[in-house]
Specification:
This protein is α/β, with parallel strands linked by helices and 171 residues long. It is built from five helices and eight strands. It is 44% helix and 22% strand.
Length: 171
Amino acid sequence: MSMNITDIQLDTDIYTTVQLKTYRKGSIPMFLRIAQAAQLSVEDDIRAKLTPMQNDVRIVYQFKNLKTLNTHGRCRRNTDKLITITINPKAIKDIHQMAETIGHELVHAEQYMTGKLSIVAGYHLLNGHRVVSRGSTYAAYRNLHWEVEAFDRQKKNAEKIISAYHLLSGA
């Protein structure tokens, strides 16, 4: 018998809707602590640079299976006031990869919050200009301007998240 967990919360912005039997022991509590560490480190750093209007956006962290195994995470601007960062537990092998993935997706959240990146009528806009290629191959995806920035910053963000994680864990 599998147990469903709905809306496990450390606060209103961190939750998971998963089946326990699907994940390695300890992965859900680890996600919750890493997401909280991300809030207290990288997300706070991002918010400190934003205007009050840009800051009026809630970032939700979600631990949920995605359809493709090679997708570690994604960031979606659901509404003007809500961004969801989803982490795919099937693709994450350890705490460092989880921190890097959240660090990467937080760059996209910042891009959305500042208006640098937006999606209008299904098209990506970078600084208000429509981007024709969405990256049909991995190389094309890696060369998209917003992805180049996210990959460039993910390691530094991950280091901040891991440091905050250790402080929260008392390690």
